[in-house]
Design goal:
Blueprint: E1 2-6, H1 19-31, E2 35-42, E3 59-64, H2 67-75, E4 82-86, H3 93-103, E5 109-114, H4 117-126, H5 131-135, E6 141-144, H6 148-157, E7 163-165, E8 188-191, H7 199-212, E9 218-221, E10 234-238, H8 245-250, E11 254-257, H9 261-266, H10 272-279, E12 284-287, E13 303-305, H11 308-317, H12 320-337, H13 340-362
Parallel strand pairs: 1-2, 1-4, 2-3, 4-5, 5-6, 6-7, 8-9, 8-11, 9-10, 11-12, 12-13
Helix pairs in contact: 1-13, 2-3, 7-11, 10-12
Length: 363
């Protein structure tokens, strides 16, 4: 089956946190026989900051950030059996969704794939006249990369025929253990861009614990933090390219995951970095969110902090030996249960079931 997938970017992770998810899911689906074309706009300097070449498992069409080019790209949806419009493409999202739905064949499976469901739902609740409300009537299925039952219930209440989470996972091709590098060595590392709904939590879970533990070295990677006041024991690395993520995860004693506010409040939304760190065999400390045990066992495969003091206390007691044991256990768990190959089996089942229901309804 042919999939036309409209998303932010497959080729660039620059200001594009969904890239890892897209790459893992679509590579795994291609291995199951799907013929995939990914359409992405040339915006936000992403094409100037590509971090992968065009893969052999997916066709990629890069179109100009103009309405005319958008409409031309959207018209290509007519060739696909499955048409996917992702959230957060970054250029005229509402128009793109309308054009893609208009172009899709009557017998095509039309999917809205939400890679930031809590934020999307908050936007829809705040705007009863949002065009997305109308589009939900024409969509066959909503998929999300997290959110659990609260997101499922919310989308169904808004009129979506169905909503199914397909969670983030590990792509062992790209995230795996590597030798430590001296430039990333330290006690605790955090990797994340500076975003409005994350900054306060980074202050609470990373910057404040660092200030309270001056004898330890903290590493901060990600864009936008250059003018942020921080303790002298924090080494700010700036943007860390995806080619260095494995080394960043394996070199410090532990790495930290800090969820965006909307994801933490909703729960059941493990970030891609959770699986990237676990896949590298890192000892992961994560802020608390509901649903963690579905993915990693607290105290055995992951350490959980409810506030900055918890982070400081964990770091004060964490030995290299225990950190190594936790990282090894996390790696074993994600390889056993949480790879994109596992998620692709689920997605394939969902696609085929939805297509079958569609065919039966047409008879």
């Amino acid at each position: 089956m042919k999939i036309a997938f409209y998303g932010s970017s497959l080729l660039s992770a620059y200001w594009n946190g969904a890239a890892t998810y897209y790459r893992g899911m679509l590579r795994a689906l291609s291995e199951k026989g799907y013929d995939i074309t990914f359409y992405e706009p040339d915006v936000y300097d992403r094409q100037k900051n590509r971090d992968i070449d065009t893969p052999d498992w997916c066709h990629v069409v890069v179109y100009e950030g103009t309405v005319e080019a958008l409409k031309t790209a959207a018209a290509e949806a007519r060739h696909a059996n499955i048409v996917v419009k992702a959230s957060g493409v970054g250029f005229e999202d509402d128009l793109l969704l309308d054009e893609v739905l208009r172009a899709a064949r009557p017998d095509a499976l039309r999917i809205f794939w939400d890679v930031d469901a809590p934020a999307t739902l908050a936007e829809l609740r705040a705007a009863p006249d949002h065009p997305m409300h109308r589009s939900l009537e024409a969509i066959d299925l909503v998929l999300t990369y997290g959110g659990g039952q609260p997101v499922v219930d919310a989308y169904r209440a808004m009129g979506a025929p169905d909503c199914i989470p397909i969670y983030n996972a590990l792509d062992p091709h790209t995230h795996h253990p590597v030798p430590a590098q001296e430039r990333f060595q330290g006690d605790l590392g955090f990797l994340g861009n500076r975003l409005p709904d994350r900054e306060a939590r980074v202050e609470q879970f990373f910057l404040e614990p660092a200030a309270r533990t001056p004898g330890q070295r903290f590493l901060l990677g990600g864009s936008g933090w250059g003018d942020k006041p921080m303790a002298p024991n924090i080494s700010y690395l700036g943007h860390v390219g995806t080619a260095d993520h494995n080394a960043f995860n394996t070199s410090p004693k532990a790495v930290l995951n800090i969820s965006r506010s909307s994801m933490a409040e909703n729960g059941f939304s493990p970030a891609t970095r959770v699986f990237e760190a676990a896949g590298a065999g890192a000892c992961l400390i994560t802020d608390y969110w509901e649903g963690i045990p579905l993915f990693l066992a607290p105290d055995e495969e992951v350490l959980v902090a409810r506030d900055g003091q918890d982070v400081a206390d964990i770091m004060a007691e964490l030995t290299p030996e225990r950190a190594r044991r936790i990282g090894e256990a996390a790696l074993e768990r994600v390889l056993r249960e949480h790879t994109y190959a596992h998620r692709a089996i689920e997605a394939d089942r969902i696609f085929r079931s939805a297509a079958r229901r569609q065919s039966e309804a047409a008879e």
